[in-house]
Write a structure and sequence with these properties.
Number of strands: 3
Structural class: alpha/beta
Number of domains: 2
Largest sheet: 3 strands, parallel
CATH architecture of the largest domain: 3-Layer(aba) Sandwich
Radius of gyration: 20 Å
Number of helices: 5
CATH topology of the largest domain: Rossmann fold
CATH class of the largest domain: Alpha Beta
Strand order of the largest sheet: 1-2-3
Order of helices and strands: HEHEHEHH
Distance between the termini: 51 Å
């Protein structure tokens, strides 16, 4: 562990010293706190907390570039566990939307509300819904049926 490493016990006390970036690193080893790419960089878990609306869409910069450039090619979109309330994500779509887009919303709660959020954000297409959990959707063959019908 480098001299400047933030150990688990001192992380909270030294929180003011943390410099956030928009970079992500996948960690395979449990408990590792130092970057494999740069041993002078300490890692802090990135948390995604479900909210009705978020001010930003968390996505690594490199991934965001690929996402944005791929949107015009997207012809099928399945939302699972997404309320479609992140305006910064929704704003990526309207000017790049593929006119052949087909959307399927999987939600045990309010698929119609999610559909409305997508439409309000400019993500429009042929929409279908499944009012169930993803586990039910997958285990009862609905996912396979959807993919075959598309």
């Amino acid at each position: 562990m480098p001299d400047n490493a933030l150990g688990r016990s001192s992380l909270i006390q030294r929180a003011a010293e943390v410099n956030e970036t928009d970079e992500f690193e996948l960690v395979g080893a449990h408990g590792r706190v130092t970057s494999q790419l740069d041993s002078t960089v300490n890692l802090i878990p990135a948390l995604a907390i479900p909210m009705d609306a978020k001010s930003i869409f968390e996505c690594p910069k490199l991934h965001m570039g690929h996402l944005v450039s791929s949107i015009p090619e997207v012809t099928r979109l399945v939302t699972i566990g997404c309320r479609a309330g992140e305006h910064s994500f929704l704003e990526l779509w309207p000017d790049r939307l593929n006119p052949e887009l087909k959307i399927h919303v999987v939600s045990p709660g309010d698929p119609a509300g999610i559909r409305a959020n997508l439409e309000a954000g400019g993500i429009r297409g042929s929409v279908s819904e499944s009012k169930m959990t993803f586990t039910e959707f997958a285990e009862h063959g609905h996912f396979a049926e959807l993919l075959q019908s598309w």
